[in-house]
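Tokens for Porin. Go.
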Amino acid sequence: MKRAHLLALWLALSPAAHADDALLPALQLSGFATLGAVTADRSDLRFYGADFNAPARQRVDFGADSVIGLQGSLRLSKASDLTVQMTAKRNPHGDHRPQLSWAFFRHSPADGISIRAGRLRVPFFMFSDTLRVNYAHPWVRPPTEVYSLNPFASADGIDMLVHASAGEWSIELQPYYGGGSIDLLGGGEARLHGVRGINLTASRDALSVHLGHGQGRLAVHWKDSGFRALSAALALAGPAYDALADELSGRRGRAAFTSFGVHWDDGRHQFIGEYVRRRSDRYVDSAHAWYLSAGYRTGSVLPYVVLASQRQDQAITSLAPPAALQGAFDAYLASRSDAQRSLTLGVRWDLDSALAFKAQLTHARIGRQAWGSFYPDEGGRAPGGRRVNVLSVAIDMVF
């Protein structure tokens, strides 16, 4: 999709972003939806995506990408408004309970400056604002190698949007502060506290550049069967391994996240690239990831190719377990790593200005000591080192 079309779409979905509130009706409503299906050629593996929703047990999974969202914005004055967004998507519990993605008050004290407070999208990635608006992306989903590195999409806090011009460049600076939580597979929870960061976006003609950094305190409380078994075994091994147990789950972690992205779309040629890096001192591994995407638009059809990779930089902990638990410990660390690389061939067909069909085939090679974007059936073979082909199709719409 052409960059200008993308911006126009998102302005329509984000009334709070309009500069001239006097032209807006008091209440604006909009929505988006995706009906998707995904299947893998390994019957004992299930694809689970970047936001760690519960993997399906069926060979064809209709819940990994399917989502519906509704958004409303109420203008309170020329300089102030309220925005609320609700989304329903399969979560780690396996249901589709609606979630409050956005709920913020915005005030513009001067031209080019907006202050927002409430529940906000955290700009960890180049496409954070449109994370679940799949119609705004060329692919069925943003590459999981990159977008699985930070599953925190929303935070409760405050930010500021400062718009300026530098020659032919349009600049947006976004400092932010807040915190948020997510549910984990198996009933656990992760929290970010005191997150502070800054995001910079610069646009000129067909080019857009993103640079962001954020850091804060991290708490992760795993409750899945793999963690419980390992934790119980370490407890039996005695107090000498208490320090190791404290690095696997708890509330004393710190994490930092850096991202850089480039987007070029001149209406015919499309190039997108993004690099991200996560640093954590415990609970989750440190890793980096990237993708490069290229497409060529012919009429309403956009074929594309994507190369993507995620690699682990540092394991969750450098402490060693008892010798008798080494095998179980290595298996546990593998289950917490999403390292993999992939090649994707796909096509997007815009059926009209608000409806698109997409299909893509991904060949993934999972890291030897990792699970990648897959979850094994209970008692099945571990994903590490395996090659998997994944077919995904989706219909995206905005309304």
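The two ends are 17 Å apart (CA to CA).
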